[in-house]
Amino acid sequence: MSAELSRRAGHYAAAVAERLLDAGLPVTGVQSRGPWHDADGGEYLDVEAGISFTQAFQDQHGGGDCGLHWAGTSGWCLYTADQEDRYLSGVRWPGAGLLPEPRIVAAFVDAFRRDPAGAGSSEQPLYRQEGQDFAVLLDSLAPYLPAQPCLFEEPQIRFADLHRRAYEDRVRRALVSRASHPLTHLYLRQGELTALLHLLEYAESSTPSALNRLLAADLGARAGQPPEAADTHKSAFQEAHHRRQAF
């Protein structure tokens, strides 16, 4: 029971994370766990899940721990803390029920980013009793199980695929330049450009991607060109994109 509660809660968190990624948020992972007991007498009687963000996102909201947490008794909350706060006093609850649709959670996060003090409530709700009615909760979480369970049995595997595809889409959209896009003259030190190319190479060696290769080729080709030549230079990605359209 505990493992299945954790798995289903994790898939619910992955569904919410997908909506957040679609909204352009810097999500980094999902976590979940069910009831547990340890040899030292510690225990947790219910189920919970969470969604984490990049450190840059956390820095924008206090600089301490920051993320989304789902409790099987109270639903979602967004917690923040400054670097000195160990008790996560900045917690906001959307008050949208135990299992709000992912779009509602995404709207709550968007509202929080615009007005942290005005989003949701600081009062923690209670929708079910701790450790009770697990069978009902399992049924309620079932709609968020993956459509292809053989490929994404574990929530973390599902999230990894969502995460990869979301960032590939972001990069692809950014690289398809349009005439209306302004030209940007960004002056980099040679060491900064070299460091960026090293990072792209590292990303390519870890997770091979044509987008990494094309962007690295484009930056490498532009390096050292005068601004006039760089402005008229067609990127490697654009050339590949036009070739695909021609077929």
How would you characterize the overall build of this protein?
With 247 residues, the chain is of the alpha+beta class. The protein is globular. The chain is built from 9 helices and 7 strands; from the N terminus they run H-E-E-E-E-H-E-E-E-H-H-H-H-H-H-H. It starts with a helix and ends with a helix. Helix 1 (2-22) packs across helix 3. The longest helix has 21 residues, at 2-22.
Please tag this protein with its features:
single chain, five-stranded antiparallel sheet, 9 helices, two-stranded antiparallel sheet, 247 residues, alpha+beta, globular
In short:
By secondary structure, this protein is α+β, with helices and mostly antiparallel strands. It contains nine helices and seven strands, in the order H-E-E-E-E-H-E-E-E-H-H-H-H-H-H-H.
Tell me the layout of helices and strands.
Layout: H1 2-22, E1 27-33, E2 36-37, E3 43-44, E4 48-53, H2 55-60, E5 63-71, E6 75-82, E7 90-92, H3 102-114, H4 134-141, H5 155-175, H6 190-206, H7 210-222, H8 227-232, H9 236-246
Antiparallel strand pairs: 1-4, 2-3, 4-5, 5-6, 6-7
- Average pLDDT works out at 85
Shape: globular
Total number of helices: 9
Cα distance spanning the termini = 52 Å
Q: How are the strands of the biggest sheet laid out side by side?
A: 1-4-5-6-7
Helix content: 40-55%
Q: Strand share of the residues?
A: 5-15%
Number of strands: 7
What is the chain-wise order of helices and strands? HEEEEHEEEHHHHHHH
| Rg measurement, Å | 22 Å
**Unreliable parts:** none
Structural class by SSE content = alpha+beta
Q: Could you give a short account of the major beta sheet?
A: 5 strands, antiparallel
